[in-house]
Amino acid sequence: MATTISSVLNQHSRDRRNLIPILQKVQEKEKYLSPASISEISGYVGISENDVYSVASFYSQFRFTKPGEHTVKVCLGTACHVRGGARVLETVERELKIKPGETTADGKYSLETVACIGACALAPTMVLDNEVQRSMTPQKVVDLLKSRNKAENDAK
Amino acid sequence: MPNNNEYTIYICEGTGCVSGKSHEIRLALEHKIAEQGLNNVKVDFTGCHGFCEQGPIAIIEPNEIFYTRLTINDVDEIVQSHIMEGKPVERLFFKDPISNRSIPYYRDINFYRKQQRIILRNCGHINPEKIEDYIEREGYNALKKVLGQMTSLQVIEEIKQSGLRGRGGAGFPTGMKWEFCQKEQSDIKYMICNADEGDPGAFMDRSIMEADPHTVIEGMTIAAYAIGAGEGYIYIRAEYPLAVKRLRIALQQSENMGFIGDNILGSEFSFKIHVNEGAGAFVCGEETALMASIEGKRGMPRPRPPFPAQSGLWGKPTTINNVKTLATVPVIINKGSEWYSKIGTDKSKGTAVFALTGKISNSGLVEVPMGMTLREIIYDIGGGLIGGKDFKAVQNGGPSGGCLPASALDLPVDYERLAAAGAIMGSGGMIVVDSQTCMVDLAKYFLSFTQEESCGKCVMCREGTLQMLKILEDIIEGNGKEEDIDLLLELAKAVQAGSLCALGGTAPNPVLTTIRYFRDEYEAHIKEKRCPALVCKNLINFYILPDKCQGCGICKRGCPVDAISGDKRMIHIIDQNKCIKCGNCLDVCPERFNAVTKVSGEKLQVPQEPIAVGSWQNSESEEKL
Q1: Is the pLDDT of residue B624 over 70?
Q2: Rounded to an integer, what distance in angstroms lies between the CA atom of residue B290 and that of residue B282?
Q3: Which of A112, B25, B256, B307 is the most exposed place for a label (fewest CB within 10 A)?
Q4: Chain B positions in Cβ-Cβ contact with residue A139 (cut-off 8 Å)
Q5: What CATH number matches the domain at B439-527, 2.30.30.240, 3.30.950.30, 1.20.1440.230, 2.30.30.100?
């Protein structure tokens, strides 16, 4: 029976070495790894669900709950840390009223932290969806989230 | 007068500049040039120049005029003034932070002038998505030379003679590593490029792969030829999407032109490269963990021996080299080991790439010969600290590295001397901090990183780092005890001894070096409940100075927790019980008033409730201020 992730699975041979690439592709498509996906991957690769979960849970890239429409990733790399990354994170937490790993009640935003995005010269940084935001300050965070919300409301 | 010169405009499209909309700037330039009907101008893009803070960056040929901090609004002026009238736009030149002079030419900028770029030789000078650009700059010549004229043993000998050591951090001699693997008898061997640049504060591997991916592929193919590997893997962080994209493009081009694949350049040698994206586990930078991850398992290190050269990926002999090591290989083959071995110090040959960041004026990637002093790197190249502030410490080598104080500034940088001072070369992260960084907090920052990233296999790494972290948290929160410093030192030793891999083995370094060089800061936290850098929240307070507050109300409006009271023309007051110490009031208080201050270990006399501006009188508070 064809499921939503069959097309992803069929691009890989049923070999353990493809487990992480498969998990990555499934997450790219589904935004997270649902119990149903884990079960299907387990069947496809031929290893137990426990084993699939043990690998997936080891790597911080993988999520097991559905993320929000938008993702805010605050960089907590060293350069960001010494230039005020923690204050950026606090501001996002306050504005969105969630902690890292959580999603807002309306399902709009998820908040994550990342160890370093390698854009240290632009510190402190955060990534909104896939766009790197440079030299952030608490005020810039507030303005950015406000302008995004406004743009979305206007579009509606 | 019409200007008939030929121009090429190179726009940087590395991660940093792209975040400043450099791609849109390039499109706007192309549009404007077409609109004006100019046919003497070419527009192209490059990878990262390593001077991301000044981005978006453009270089205009001829003469390498260097433009910084471009925006879309600058496009018209560049085309009109520089291209059509032959007058470069001065306001876009780089401003030297020390002399304050505008510098038009790339070659005259101190940040670049004192560097010796071998590993980063092509970065910013070629279009990373065009193999022709790489070939034009001697690209793939080394591979041709190796396949046409050298045996695998000769290649290994050449690399051994050059003195090249692994740039991933540990500094193991590359030629010897290759030799171990070459000697193994096996039908299958693997060559791995470790591009899992996980150290926070390091981004040179990303820059190289974004700006010059072919050099990594060429170096890797030469290494594979030397050890006899037919298959290779590039293990790269998924957090670097642009680098992944450019590597994949480069691999395709390289295969199309016969530089990788079957019977490379008509020889007997075949080599195939796969790209594996890491999934966000710092420990996978460790070679045995990295291989486990490629095999589709949890990325946990295992004991060595057997070393990867004997039993690596799927039990086969394997060599793992860092991106920078491989990027150096083609240059050594082209220019010879003798040339290379003359650069650097006695035991550390060649150049080192540092990611110079933090409170430094010129943030960016710096490649210098081994043996240059920290002072030269930080002041001559880095332009000193932002705002001319005093240097406090430099943190070298990321979470495995150490913090060095001002007394170490004249230390020549190489593997041995950094290690002797308690830091490491590591990944090359070099984070400069000023008096506003708390060293206890910085140690806690690094330890919480390694603690989180510990894979959990070794008890001391898993539990020991956690206990150390809890002690540091106590100290930072003002609950430190006098015996805590000794306890930290004792635990540090145990963690180092009881860990299988370098993650645990080096995790205590930031704590050890901050205690070694900044013990007084630990003691201030513990004994006086004071944070000298005014960072640790439990130990600081914000006050509005009653003699300076003009009652404008900006701070009150900006306070996220309504901790500030006061009306127009009234001296505002912060409710210390409500204050979350976010520092917003300090940020927003207009500079001409400068009425908000941050203190640690002291209490300021302020009115109990808002009173009229100008009515405050308190001799005690004036004395203190």
Answers
A1: no
A2: 10
A3: B256
A4: 584, 587-588
A5: 1.20.1440.230
Report percent pLDDT > 70 for chain B.
98
Find, among B355, B402, B380, B421, the residue nearest to B394 by Cα: B402
Structure confidence at residue A79 (pLDDT): 87
Q: Is it true that domain B7-109 has CATH number 3.40.190.10?
A: no
**Most A CBs within 10 Å, among B52, B208, B283, to test the A interface:** B52
The topology under which CATH files domain B351-433 is Ubiquitin-like (UB roll) (3.10.20)
- With an 8 Å Cβ cutoff, are A17 and B294 in contact? yes
> Of B18, B298, B357, which to mutate for an interface test with A (greatest number of A Cβ within 10 Å)?
B357
ipTM over 0.85: yes
The answer to whether B281 touches B299, Cβ cutoff 8 Å, is yes
CB contact under 8 A, A82 and B238: no
pLDDT tens-place string over residues B541-592: 999 999 999 999 999 998 989 999 999 999 999 999 999 999 999 999 999 9
Its CATH architecture, for the domain B131-341, is 3-Layer(aba) Sandwich (3.40)
Q: What are B132's two structure tokens?
A: 């022709």
Q: Three-state DSSP class for B28?
A: helix
At the second CATH level, the architecture of A70-155 is 3-Layer(aba) Sandwich (3.40)
CB atoms within 10 A of CB B243: 31
Chain A closest CA to B446's CA: distance in Å? 8
pLDDT digits (tens, 9 = 90+) for B514-529: 999 999 999 999 999 9
CB contact under 8 A, A78 and B52: no
Q: Where in chain A is the domain with CATH 3.40.30.10?
A: 70-155
**Interface A:B, Cβ pairs < 8 A:** 150
